[in-house]
Amino acid sequence: MELNNKQRAYLSSLAANESPIMQIGKDDVTPELINAINETFNNREIVKLSVLKNCFSDPRDIADVVAGRTRSTVVRVIGRKIVLYKPFKEPKIILPKKKKKADI
Question: How far apart are CA 104 and CA 99, in angstroms?
């Protein structure tokens, strides 16, 4: 799912007040971590992760891998915090509308 800047900002503002629900450590991305994140997406549309200092991988790379394996979208990576979004079949979070480009 492709998000525009306004939608990213909206989702990021929703995640700002939440604390990370999972931490990624020295083991990096494991199948158990992916399964846990998938389980979390059954209850939440936004998931916030924290990458610990003992993990030597780049948080942006980790975000891309996790998003690909969970079929979610990376909203933001700020420092060592990752915010992912995966809408429900009937979304509870209503995103701002995308503007249509005017025909020239």
Answer: 15
